[in-house]
Write a structure and sequence with these properties.
Layout: E1 3-12, E2 15-25, E3 30-34, H1 41-49, E4 56-61, E5 64-65, E6 76-79, H2 91-101, H3 106-119, H4 135-147, E7 153-157, H5 165-182, E8 186-190, H6 193-199, E9 202-207, E10 210-215, H7 217-222, H8 227-232, E11 237-240, H9 241-247, E12 263-267, E13 272-276, E14 282-289, E15 294-300, E16 303-309, E17 320-325, E18 330-334
Parallel strand pairs: 3-8, 3-9, 6-7, 7-8
Antiparallel strand pairs: 1-2, 1-4, 4-5, 9-10, 11-12, 12-18, 13-17, 14-15, 14-17, 15-16
The structure holds adenosine-5'-triphosphate.
GO cellular component, one term: ATP-binding cassette (ABC) transporter complex
Domain ABC transporter: 3-233
Pfam family, one: TOBE_2
Length: 335
């Protein structure tokens, strides 16, 4: 079943938190809501969950209006940022809770709990209590609990944000794997662009209660349509039209029509090629070693540019370099 969000408006005392949002979550799709603090991600997720009312608009699940359906009857699985396991229940009891309140028979609950413990790769922890688990384990149990009732939609509110980088990366891969296997449509809130790029089929980039752009991770990274999206989805060189006309005229043909200040060229740092050249016009300002990449700040034709390379560029600060950008490396964005 798909979820359709139509013209959804949410205000708090006149403040517009969601400004007529339109969005479809297709069957089997993993959608990430991405954006800075306060852009409305959590509000949207809570409204879909049924935990918060909205002003106007429509929510349809498989064509059925959810407006009058209370949270507990929506049949959605929810995982929050903070581990929200019941502290006085074991892992198995936590996972089986939803089935128990639906009065499922004991043997069915036990079988389902076992299946889910295997799925989250924690079969040996059934009898532990939440306080005896690491943060990553607790979030896996929270995921299993959300899955236990065969939800028609999974809602994840920054489920990884309290975990350290390594656990986060592992669990991220597991969530993706489980979601793919089960094919349950999923909405996840995050402010971490890397997380959105690795997990999502569709990324929804939000800003001030509006959707700036919706697309695949590739769309948003390679073909951002606004300066905000370009900036939020990784680092970029944002180059004014006037400068491009003088310094990189070969980028101009892709520019949409519009006033001089209406568009800027977005060139990702890895698309700037740098080569040592004694008579090169560019100068290396500094170079930072970041393990898998090297980041160079360059000065070239009156601007500072950011370049990144996987190879050792063979130059240091002060060195003269040639700088080039392929025409197709540029996306024109609304400034
Ligand atoms: N109960 C409320 N009363 C008044 N304003 C609220 C309420 N809940 C949220 N807001 C406001 O609505 C806006 C969106 O909040 P929301 O929590 O959805 O943002 P977010 O994108 O999830 O941010 P974060 O990443 O910080 O959680 C914010 O400006 C927030 O202050």
């Amino acid at each position: 079943m798909d979820l359709q969000i139509k013209n959804l408006l949410k205000t708090f005392d006149g403040f517009v938190a969601l400004d007529r949002i339109n969005l479809t979550v297709e069957e089997r799709e993993f959608v990430c809501l991405l954006g800075p603090s306060g852009c409305g991600k959590t509000t949207l997720l809570r409204i879909v969950a049924g935990l918060m009312p909205y002003d106007t608009g429509e929510l349809l699940m498989g064509g059925r209006d959810l407006g009058a359906v209370p949270a507990r009857d929506r049949g959605f699985g929810i995982v929050f940022q903070s581990y929200s396991l019941f502290p006085n229940m074991t892992v198995a009891e936590n996972i089986g809770y939803g089935l128990k309140i639906r009065k499922a028979p004991g043997d069915r609950i036990a079988a389902r709990v076992k299946e889910l413990l295997d799925l989250i790769k924690l079969p040996q922890l059934a009898d532990r209590y939440p306080w005896q688990l690491s943060g990553g384990q607790q979030q896996r149990v929270a995921l299993a609990r959300a899955l236990a009732v065969d939800p028609s939609l999974i809602l994840l509110d920054e489920p990884l944000s309290a975990l350290d980088a390594r656990v986060r990366a592992d669990l991220r891969a597991e969530i993706r794997d489980v979601q793919r296997r089960l094919g349950i449509p999923t909405i996840m809130v995050t402010h971490d662009q890397e997380e959105a790029l690795t997990l999502a089929d569709k990324v929804v980039c939000m800003n001030h209660g509006l959707i700036e752009q919706v697309g695949t991770p590739q769309d948003l990274y390679l073909r951002p349509r606004t300066r905000f999206v370009a900036d939020f989805m990784g680092s970029s060189n944002l180059l004014p039209t006037g400068w491009v006309r003088d310094a990189m005229p070969h980028l101009l043909p892709g520019r949409p029509d519009g006033a001089e200040n209406a568009y800027e060229a977005c060139v990702r740092p890895e698309r700037i090629a740098v080569a040592p050249a004694a008579d090169g016009e560019g100068r290396v300002i500094d170079l930072t070693f970041l393990g898998n990449i090297r980041r160079l700040r360059l000065s070239w034709r009156g601007r500072e540019l950011l370049a990144e390379t996987h190879q050792d560029p063979g130059v240091g600060p002060g060195a003269a370099v040639d700088v080039s950008v392929a025409a197709e490396a540029c996306a024109w964005v609304r400034a």
